[in-house]
Amino acid sequence: MTRHWLWVVxxxxxxxxxxxxxxxxxxxxxxxxxxxxxxxxxxxxPGMLWVQDGAALWERAPSASAKACAGCHGAASQSMRGxxxxxxxxxxxxxxxxxxxxxxxxxxxRHQQAAxxxxxxxxxxxxxxxxxxxxxxxxxxPPSDPRLTPFRERGAALYRQRLGQLDLxxxxxxxxxxxxxxxxxxxxxxxxxxxxxxxxxxxSLGSLxxxxxxxxxxxxxxxxxxxxxxxxxxALHLAWRDRxxxxxxxxxRP
Length: 254
Prior knowledge:
The chain is mainly α. It contains eleven helices and seven strands. The chain is globular.
């Protein structure tokens, strides 16, 4: 084969690869029309109640001697635009990746001399939802930081690892069987595009870690504790898996 024809073949193969459609689906695409309408309309979306509370907390100092978040960062709608799209991210002082919620608590401890907020507490979810809402519509853009690579690889391995008495992995459900049904319910692709999100089943807002722990319970495995590095690594893999998909926070799910 001449060099010219070799170049033509390589170019054609590249064009075919680029033409492959993106078959990734947000959980939004699999919801009923009324639930989709609830997410689209901020006046109906229950998650916006947490966003509003987060906006109030953003302006409120945790103590008389500390600054409010706004005192350093200004309006979250501007300064936090794009921030949630980059999390989990590497923390140089801890030498490991952290989630957006963990970053909020580290800011409280390091810069506001305030106690960290408990996992899944209303105030932490509200602040996380408010910050993530500032990035709604932007593509998920995981950092290219090479320090994250070993953590991301461990998260990918955990995603494929069989767990629990049912001996199932995340990949077996959300990759291999997505679109099929389990107990009458559609199996989604498991895209983490809208957290923290409002789940009708919970009647509350919840974090990605809460959902991952629910899945572990569903396969009859002992769930990792909130903040466990394994959950952060799994979230890191999911962000890479969902890169380029738009942030929906606060999403609504059944």
